[in-house]
Structures are given as structure tokens and as C-alpha cells.
Specification:
The C terminus is likely disordered. The protein has two domains: about 240 residues, 2-enoyl-CoA Hydratase, Chain A, domain 1; about 80 residues, no CATH class. The protein is α/β, with parallel strands linked by helices. Strands 1, 2, 3, 4, 5, 6, 7, 8, 9 and 10 form a ten-stranded mixed beta sheet that branches. Strand 4, helix 2 and strand 5 form a beta-alpha-beta unit. About 50% of the residues lie in helices and about 15% in strands.
Length: about 400
């Protein structure tokens, strides 16, 4: 079911896809278009959701309902950007859903495509005859039992069923074209002849836009990394239904299963390395900023203490430099308007300052480096006191 991470609604599109059953989720091995539509509508109406991420790992499913869900995705993406991440299969109907997103992102081993339609008819008449069973169908309407499994297909019925498959196929091609635009037109999709493609080949043919990991895509959308490690199940739609599905016995599906774990581990490692590099860069920038601030503060203190206006007003100048955030000009203005200390007071203050700030032997003139260091400490303490009151 849908979960939200820092403004990104993550909607899983997993396993075999069916039209109805809003209560179905991946634990049953089925995901319904009805349930996905409800989650999309909820995400589109949630003011906290800024974008939607479709986490797709499916071989496809029923043709009925897929085009309607794709229409809904194209509608939602007008107000909420929709990204489809193939994690690691979007075949047949699952690709039809992905094609409606603003962007399709894949991993190096993701499998996409199988833009086609299939209908199964099982002629079990020979099997039943061998068992001595002869079904009798009693019906009204000449086409009521077309395609039943108890007798071979006639040429006329086969032609009707093929026409139905062709109609769904045209709708599938149009759905892909409406979602992908010039990147994958209906003619380009038809030219794939329902093949599946992996990685860079899929991008070259317009079936996908770029390669990244799930973590990288989620981080780019929300700055929050939450890795997933899902694998396609590969179960087909119910027998007898028109479906858009890729058999889980296909070599490509096996390849996805073999490589998905290693790919996710590598993606997680890359994400951790990227996060570490970012943290180190931020720490370096912070250190540079602190060093610059220290230099600036030292220069301010030095300029106030050594200014002409500070002569004869050394104690007051030191207080203004270390206990306030006054600029040099502001401090000089205050010092200029203040009376000077007497000669005796000045000597006593300088001697006291020398002892306080560690001048050797209590010398008359305090050490400049010690003054600056102590002034910086006092400035920090003063800033902390101000912050504590904020």
C-alpha cells in the first residue's frame, strides 16, 4: 500500500495486475487497477504530497482496466509529478502503467517492454475424449459459447477472438504513445514486436529515460533515502482472460531475479558513499566559514583596541570589543565621546589587564594575541547568552 516519505507518495505496483479488487495487495500475489487508482487519487488530493513515485515490479496482467489507470496517471501528473521506477520489471500492462508517468527510470538490469496482448485458448476436447467424457453445451445466442475449451476453435471464432486481441493491442499502443509522446510513438512501440529490453537498450529505443537506483531517485525527490529490495513474482493473469503478461519462465525474468539483490546492494553502497561525500563537503564548508568568522572577529577586536579613539580609554575599548557586537566605526564613535582615563588609572588598568590576560610578569602592556583569544571567547559566550534568550 501507499506510504509517504518527506512529501513523496510511494505506490507499489507489484506482481500480477488485475482490474478489480481494491482490497488486493502484493501479499496475495495480485495488485488491482482499482486499488492503484484509489491510491493515486488520494496522493493527488493530499496537500502534503509533492510528487508520486511508482515502484514497479510486475510482469503485467489483465488488459481490461490498464488504459483507464494510465489515463488517471496522466491526469494526476498535471498537478503532481509522477516518476515510474522499474524495480526490476515493467512488462506488458505494467509497462503501460509506467508509460503514463512523467519519467521512467530503470536500473542497469531492469526489464521493460513486452508491448503486446495475448489470449489463451486451451482445447481440451482430446483430453476429455480420452477419458470418455463428452460435454454438451446448452445455450442461446449463436456466439454464447465461442472459445469454450471443450471443442477446437472454428476459423470464424478464431477470427473474432483475433479481432478482440487486435483492438486491445491498438489501445495499448495508443496508451503508450499518449504517455511517452515523441520518445515512443505508436509506430515505434509496434516495431518492438512485444520484445523486452534491458538497461541502456531500453533507453536507446525510447522505452525509458535514464538509469539510477531506487535510493537515488527517492533521494532526488525527497532528500530521504529509504532502500527497497523487491523482486518480480512473474505470475500470469487468470487463464482464459485477455492479458498483457510476461511468463516468469522467460530467461529475461530469471536474469532479473538473479541480479536484483546484487544491484540493490551496489546501489545502497553508492548511496552511502554519496551521502558520506556530501557530509564531508558540508563539514569542510562549515569549517571554512568558522575560520573566516574567527578571522573577521579578531580583526574587529584588534581594530577597536588599537584605534586612536582607544588611547586613554583602554578598558572601555576592550569592553566594547569583546562584550558587544559593535562595528569599529560604532565603537570609535562611543570612545570618542567618552572621557579619557587619568594617567594613574590607565597604568593600573594596563597592569591589571596584563595579569588577567597572561602578560609575562604582569607587564604594563597586555599581550595582543592573548587579548584577541580571550576576546573571541567572550564574544562566543556573549552570543550564546543572546541565543539562549531567543
Amino acid at each position: 500500500m501507499m506510504r509517504t516519505a518527506d512529501g513523496v507518495a510511494i505506490i507499489p505496483v507489484l506482481d500480477t495486475l488485475v482490474n478489480r479488487g481494491a482490497w488486493l495487495d502484493s501479499r496475495s500475489g495480485l495488485t488491482s487497477y482499482e486499488g492503484l487508482a484509489a491510491q493515486l487519487r488520494a496522493a493527488g488530493q493530499d496537500p502534503e504530497v509533492r510528487s508520486i513515485l511508482l515502484d514497479i515490479s510486475s510482469p503485467g496482467g489483465e488488459a481490461a482496466g490498464m488504459a483507464g489507470l494510465a489515463d488517471l496517471i496522466r491526469s494526476v501528473r498535471q498537478t503532481r509529478p509522477v516518476t515510474a521506477f522499474v524495480n526490476d520489471m515493467a512488462a506488458s500492462a505494467a509497462y503501460g502503467i509506467a508509460s503514463a508517468a512523467n519519467e521512467i527510470v530503470i536500473s542497469p538490469t531492469s526489464i521493460v517492454g513486452s508491448i503486446g496482448v495475448v489470449m489463451l485458448h486451451a482445447d481440451r476436447s482430446g483430453e476429455l475424449a480420452a477419458q470418455g467424457v463428452k460435454p454438451t453445451l446448452i445455450f442461446a445466442g449463436s456466439h454464447k459459447v465461442d472459445g469454450n475449451p471443450f471443442e477446437p476453435l472454428s476459423d470464424a471464432v478464431r477470427a473474432d477472438l483475433q479481432a478482440s486481441v487486435d483492438a486491445h493491442y491498438r489501445q495499448f499502443l495508443d496508451t503508450v504513445a499518449m504517455g511517452r509522446g515523441p520518445k515512443l510513438t505508436a509506430d515505434m512501440a509496434r516495431a518492438t514486436e512485444a520484445r523486452t529490453f534491458i538497461g541502456t537498450e531500453a533507453i536507446r529505443l525510447g522505452l525509458a529515460d535514464r538509469i539510477a537506483s531506487f535510493d537515488e531517485v527517492l533521494a532526488s525527490l525527497s532528500q530521504t533515502t529509504r532502500p527497497r529490495n523487491t523482486r518480480p513474482n512473474g505470475r500470469n493473469a487468470r487463464r482464459g482472460d485477455i492479458s498483457m503478461s510476461t511468463d516468469d519462465t522467460a530467461p529475461a525474468a530469471e536474469l532479473a531475479g538473479h541480479h536484483s539483490t546484487a544491484e540493490h546492494e551496489a546501489a545502497a553502497l553508492r548511496a552511502r558513499e554519496a551521502a558520506g561525500n556530501m557530509a564531508r563537503e558540508q563539514a569542510a564548508r562549515l569549517e571554512e566559514a568558522v575560520a573566516a568568522a574567527r578571522l573577521e572577529e579578531r580583526a574587529r577586536i584588534r581594530a577597536i583596541v588599537n584605534s586612536d579613539a582607544a588611547e586613554g580609554r583602554e578598558k572601555q575599548a576592550l569592553m566594547l570589543a569583546t562584550e558587544t557586537a559593535l562595528t569599529v566605526a560604532e565603537a570609535e564613535k562611543i570612545l570618542g565621546a567618552s572621557p579619557k582615563e587619568t594617567r594613574l588609572e590607565a597604568l593600573a588598568q594596563r597592569a591589571s589587564a596584563g595579569l588577567e590576560f597572561g602578560a609575562p610578569g604582569g607587564a604594563e602592556k597586555p599581550d595582543a594575541g592573548a587579548l584577541i583569544q580571550e576576546g573571541w571567547k567572550r564574544a562566543i559566550a556573549n552570543a550564546n547568552r543572546q541565543f539562549a534568550r531567543a
